[in-house]
Amino acid sequence: MQSAVAGRPAWVKYAVVGGVIVVAGIVGVVWNSISVQATPTSSTTTENQTTTTPTPADIATSYPPQYAEFYTSMFANMDATVDPCEDFYQYACGGWLDANDLTDTDSYIDTSFSIVNKNNDKIIHDIMATKPDVIDPFYQACVAEPAVNGEAVADVTTQLRHIATLDSVDALLAYAGALAVTTTTKSFLDIDVGVDPKNATVNMLYLLQGGLTLSSAEYYANAAKYFGPLNEYIANLSAALDHHPFQTRNHGSDMIAQTIFDFEAQIANVSLPRAQLRDPWATYHKFDLQDVHPFVATYVQGMNPLWGTNQTVPVLVPSPQFLEGLAKLVANTDLAVLKTYVSFHLVHTRSPVLGDTFRVLTHNFRSATEGLPAVESRQVYCTNLVKSYLGEYLGQLYLDKAFQPSVKAQAKALIQQIEDAMTDLIHQVDWLDAPTRRVALDKVAKIANFVGGPDSFEPLPFPLNATNFYQNVQTLDSLANNATLNKLGNQVDHTKWTMFAFTANAYNDATANKMVFPAAFLQKPVYGASEFPAVANYARIGVVMGHELTHGFDDRGRNFDPSGQLAHWWTADVKDKFESNTQCLVDQYSTFPVESLDKKTVLGYVNGRMTLGENIADNGGLKLAYMAYQKAKQADPTI
Q: Which residue windows are coiled coil (predicted)?
C-alpha cells in the first residue's frame, strides 16, 4: 500500500525512460528528413552514391520561420565536430552534455522530462496562486506546520510505547499490520491490491518483497558505505524525539542502528533480485490466505480483522521463497530486535509529518544513501504533497488551464499512425507464425488509448482543515488505504488512471491492454503541433508512443493477450525465436559502463537482463516512429 494513491503491481505497468538517450534516435530521424529536403552545400562521392550534408544555415532557410527555434535548439544540442560514424551519441548529444551540469537542486537533467517538469512547475504555481477550493486549505496547513508537530509526535510516542508493551511475536505482527493501514508504515513486507493477471477483471491481494530502509537490497552488502548514514540518522531521530528509545533495552543509537542494519541485511539476503521478478509466469503464485505462512496471515489480519474470518481471501505471492525465508528469519529473531525494527520503521515512515525538523533529517539520510539533491523548501514540499494527495483535483485544474481539446485529437491521430506502423511490422516479421501473428494483430487492434486526463473524479467526502496539517494527512491516508483495501475481490475499473494529468510520463498497462499519455507530456519540448515540423513530432512524442506500444510486446508485456489476461498465446517456436533475438540486446546493454560523474571511474555495468523491457521499448519505439513518418511522407512529401 502507498501513502497517497495506491500503486499498481510494478510488473504490469511500464513508464517511459530516456531523455538524452532518446535524443540520439531523434536526431537520426530528423536528420534523415532534413538531409533530403535541405539545399546541399557539400558532397562526398563513393562508387555507388553521392551523400550531401546540409549546414544549419541551409536548414534554417528550408523551413517556415516558426520552426527556427526548434532547429536552433537541435543544432545546439549536437556536436558537429564528431564523426557520427565513430560516435553517434556524442555527435547527437555532445553539445547538450557540454552545456548542462547537475546542480544541487537536480536529481537528474535531460532534454525532455526535466524541461517539461519545469514548465509544469510554472503552470501549477499559477494554479496554486488562485487558492482553489479543497487544494488551498491543505497547502496552507502544510506550509504553516511547525518545526516539530506536537500532536503528531505525541501520537507516534504513544504508538512506540504500545510496541514496547507487546509480549509476543504474533501481537507485534498484528500491530505492524494495523500500522500499515493507519500510518502507511511498511515493515517486513509490502502489501497491495491489484489485478489478478489470469483474471484481469478481478482484484486480489499482493504480498510483495519489502521491509527494507535502503532503496536496494544490494546496498546491505556494503556496510562500510551505508551503515554510517543509518547510524547518524537514527541518532538524530532519537534526539529529535527527545531521546525516546526505539526499543525497551537501554542501548545507544549505534547499537540500535546495528540491530536494524543486521536484521534488514538478512531480509535482503532472502529477497530475490529484481531481474528475477520480471517474468510474470515465474512470479504467478496464487494462494488463499489460509495457505500462506501463519506469520503472514497474522500480519495481514492486523490490517483488516475481517480477513481473519474469511480465510479464502485470494493472494498473489510473486516470491514464495521470500516469504518462506522471512518467516524463518522472524521465527529465529529475538522479540526485542523485531520491536526495535518495527519501531524504527514507524518513525522513519511518519517523519515527514512530524515537522520540518524530522523531514530534513529523513531527506539528509536519503541524500547520503541515494544522492538526492538539496532539501526542497517547505513551499515546494507542500506543493509536491498536493500533487500526491490531491492529484486528481489538481489534474482537473491543470487540464482546464493548459490542455486544449485539439491537442487530444491530434495526439490520438498520431497514436493511430504508430499503431498502423506496428500492424505493418507484425505483417513483415518473418519469424512469426500465423497463429501468433493473428493474436498480435488483434492485440494492436484492441488497445485502448487514454490521452490528457480522466473525464471526472470523485469529490472528497469531507472538507480539509486549513490549520491542522497532521489531521489532513491522517484523514487522506485513511481514505486512500481504505479505497485500496476495498478493491479486494471487486471488479477492476480499467478506466481508472494511475498517473495524474500533470505527470510528465506515460505508461502501458498490460492487464488492461491500454496506453496512457497524460496532458503534461503533450507539450514542448516533447510535442508541438504548430511549433515543430512534422518530423520532430514523430521523432519526439511519436517515439514515446511507439515505446509504450512496444511494451505490450516486450519480454513481459508479450505474455498478456488482447484482453489483458496472462496467457500462452505465443507458440513455442516463436517464443524461442523471440528469446534468441532479444538476447543480443541483453548482451549489448550489459557492456554499457556506469561511470562516475567525472568519468574517471567505472562503477559497474548495466544489467541488460533487468533493463530488457525498456531497451526493447526504446528501440522499438524509435523504429515504429520512423516507419510511421516514412509512411506519412509517402502521402505528403512536404512534411
A: none
